[in-house]
Amino acid sequence: MQPKLPARSKTERGSKALHTGGQQHYATPSVASSNDEAGKKKVRVCVRCQGRIEDGRWISIEAPSVLCESCWKNMYLPKCRRCNLPIEKQAVSSSDGQLKGKYHKDCFNCFTCSKPFPDKVFYVYDGRPLCKYHYHEANESLCAAATCGQPIEGPCAVSHTGDKYHPEHLTCEWNGYPKCDVRLNGEYWELEGRMLCEKHAKNDGGRSDENRRDGERWNEGEEGRASGARKRMTRFIDLGALGDLR
Length: 246
Hints:
Layout: E1 25-26, E2 44-45, E3 52-53, E4 58-62, E5 65-68, H1 69-76, E6 91-92, E7 103-104, E8 123-125, E9 128-130, H2 132-138, E10 155-158, E11 164-165, E12 187-191, E13 194-196, H3 198-202, E14 230-233, E15 235-238, H4 239-242
Antiparallel strand pairs: 1-4, 2-3, 4-5, 6-7, 8-9, 10-11, 10-15, 12-13, 12-14
């Protein structure tokens, strides 16, 4: 017959370290029986790990079976999702169920960079707590502009390739001087992998008339130019309203 085990404990804020579901928890070992030498302590063996219980801390589950304190904690206390060790005192969890599992208070930090959360603000992605940057990295909502790379929360401009930008950072990629700062918040042209305003697309993205290949002329149609310029359209979404874009 299998030994009757104590009920699983529940860890909450301010709860005690051990709950034995009605079973007695002994802090000191029992005294040896009359058959043992007088005054000699009886050494017990954990029924789960078969280890000798030398520190006098054990839990009786069904006479004469006992568990050592370590095995009891591993079997009946919730495990921290970060360090996978039993949670004996305060645990951090979410009431809405979005954050999976429970955490030691000291283990509750960004799952990617391990940094604590400033102002106690955190994000949840795939059931794990993340800082703002690593949430948006996982959610593919970092600004694709080389000069930015920061999280987008709110209005977002999406290029024809699906890259996301702060609307003010989706600008003409003409490589001349001075830099073109025309925003591509509507129609724009794609030429040789670059996104260009109409002015610089007509100028072949920077090539002069004498450097154009024979027969190349600007065409106001959708194809734009024989060299391959294509008209594209910026798409807008609100990441604040959509939330998770997985």
